[in-house]
Amino acid sequence: AKVSLGFLSEIERGQKEASSELLKAITIALEIPLSQVVSQAANVLAKVEQAEQSVVVKLPVKNQERAA
Question: Phi, psi (5° rounding) for residue 8?
């Protein structure tokens, strides 16, 4: 995805926000559809709004080790 591992780590920890362009590049690197990520995020957000609690989102990543 042409971004440093440190920056990806900050995104994962919620310290930085990914732009839509970076999010698209990450999903391409991980070989998962952006629509799937957005759909899952929407479903999780709906659950959070209903339960008013934090929920962890797990993305479907292939078992292959890839540099993002």
Answer: -60, -40
Residue 42 near residue 34 (C-beta atoms within 8 A): no
Residue 68 CB coordination number (10 Å): 15
Report the predicted TM-score, pTM, of the whole model to 2 decimal places: 0.61
Per-residue pLDDT tens digits for 10-68: 988 889 988 999 999 999 998 999 999 999 989 888 887 777 765 566 777 766 555 54
By the 10 Å C-beta count (0-12 exposed, 13-18 middle, 19+ buried), 56 is classed as: exposed
CB 10 within 8 A of CB 17: no
Residues 6+ apart with CB under 8 A from 6: none
